[in-house]
Amino acid sequence: MKKFFATMATAAILTFSANNVSAFEFSDVPTMHWAYSGVTTLVDAKIIPHSKDGKFYGDKNITRSEIAQMTANLLLKVSPDSKSVAKKIIKDFSENGGKAATRFEIATILSEVYAKAHKGDISVAPISFADVPAEHWAVESVNLMVTMKLMEGYGDGTFRGDRRMTRYEAAMTVAKLYEILSE
Fold first, then answer.
1. By the 8 A CB rule, do 150 and 106 touch?
2. What is the C-alpha separation between 79 and 61, in angstroms, rounded?
């Protein structure tokens, strides 16, 4: 009888562990890292691939081509009929693809994905940032991302849209959008 309960307990633990561990773990993203959940969510959903060397390189700035591929994969995951939009995203960001993406660019690309994949309306109020005037080319995207709590401004009232994002920051932002669009 004790052996039976021990076997059942072991099976329960293994089942719990199998259901709560990412299919792939990066050697440079420990389970206690602040971005672990976002990175593993995207890997498990096949939105980002694992690297051949098993590292994520999360402290590096995300490039235009990396964020384009990530968001195109996200879009196809939540809206499989969006192949033409996904191709357009990749094409638009392939120019200077090795260049680090800015917060303005990431807000814009994520807004495109949201607009295509979301089934419903969200009320977007104008948000005022000292460095994002009402006529700025990315103002609508910034307002949407901040309203949805995918991105935020800084304590000094700025958005700092020209600032680059790390791969960790981008992964967390894209993972949040994936969760919203998957509901």
1. no
2. 27
Q: Where are the domains of the chain?
A: 23-182
Q: What is the pLDDT along the chain (183 residues), one digit of tens a residue?
A: 444 333 333 333 333 333 444 445 788 898 889 999 999 999 999 999 777 888 899 999 999 999 999 999 999 999 999 999 999 999 988 888 999 999 999 999 999 999 888 866 777 878 899 999 999 999 999 999 999 999 999 999 999 999 999 999 999 999 999 999 998
Residues 6+ apart with CB under 8 A from 99: 63, 64
Rounded to whole angstroms, the Cα distance separating 15 from 13 reads 5
| Nearest residue to 58 via CA among 135, 173, 137 | 173
Nearest to 103 by CA among 157, 20, 149, 164: 164
